[in-house]
Every structure is written in structure tokens, then in C-alpha cells.
């Protein structure tokens, strides 16, 4: 009986030893996987500050970059709106299609200039080009200085281009000494715009 009991105990110890060997082998084979998990845990733990709070330095840098981009977009949007508003505020440029319109436009500029403004401001307000005013100014100048001579030229105009009619008016002022003197007197007294032309 004693021998049988000892044999049973020995078998039991042998089985337990074999079981422990299997467990040890299994734990050794799982060790690399567990080390990867441990490393990921170390990384996650390293993102914590010493007081246990989450380190938001990376998040803050990302948020700063995105906020900078948003700021730039807003600036671009404002710049575009400002340009559009400026274009909207500017009056479309107008051109005199006939001598009567040229004279009317010239007188409007002259009135604005007499009020103490500048010619540039007057041109901008009426939406006209300075070069165009200078080119057609002789028409209005002859109309103001020598209305009778203006009427004579207007009668023979007969579908001429506006630029050609302006040239004829300038020639009429320069060719007649009386009209030329009158022109100079009007200009010096401020009754004409101080534009620099070939007649001066």
C-alpha cells in the first residue's frame, strides 16, 4: 500500500513538472509580443507630464498651424472684398460722344475744380480719363471763349470724328489773335481749366 501511494505521488509530481515546463515555454514564446505592448505603453506614458496630465504640446502646435492658415484665409477674403468694394465705388468711365456732351462734361469738371478741389479728384468723381479731357478740351474752350466761331465750325462738322473736330477748334483758337488773347485771359482768370495744351 505504501509503495503504491509513493508511486502515485511520483506520477503526480511528474505531471505537475511537465505542466510547469509547458507554462514556462509558453510564457517565453509570448515575451516579444508583450515587449511590444510594453513599449507602446511606455510611449503613451511618456506623453503624460510629471503631474499625470496629458502633454498637449503636439496638439497645440497643430492647432497653432491651423489657426495661422485660418488667419491668412480671412485676410485674403478681406482683401478681395476690399478690392470689390473699391471697384464698385468707382464710377464707370464715360466718354463724350458729341460736342454737346464734351462741353457739358468740361463744365462739370470746371465747377468741381472751382469749389477748391483738384482736377484729379474731379476726373475721378465723374469717372473720366484725363487724357480724353485734354484731347477734347479745345471744343469746350472754343465754345466758352468764342461761341460764334464755335457755331460756324459746328455747322460744317457733318459727321466728322470728335478728335478731328477738337483739332479744328484748337486751330481756330491759335489762328485768330483776338480769340487767342481772349483764351489766355479766360485761363488766367480761372474761367477755363488749367490744362497744358499746344495752344498755351
Description:
- The structure is a single chain.
- By secondary structure, the protein is mostly helical.
- The chain has 8 helices and no strands.
- The longest helix is centred in the first third of the chain and has 45 residues, at 2-46.
- It is rod-shaped, with a radius of gyration of 49 Å.
- Mean pLDDT is 77; it is low at 38-58 and 86-93.
The portion of residues forming beta strands comes to under 5%
Overall morphology: rod-shaped
**Termini gap:** 148 Å
Which class do the helix and strand fractions yield?
A: mainly alpha
Low-confidence stretches: 38-58, 86-93
Beta strand count: 0
What are the key terms here?
200 residues; 76% helix; rod-shaped; mainly alpha; 8 helices; 0% strand
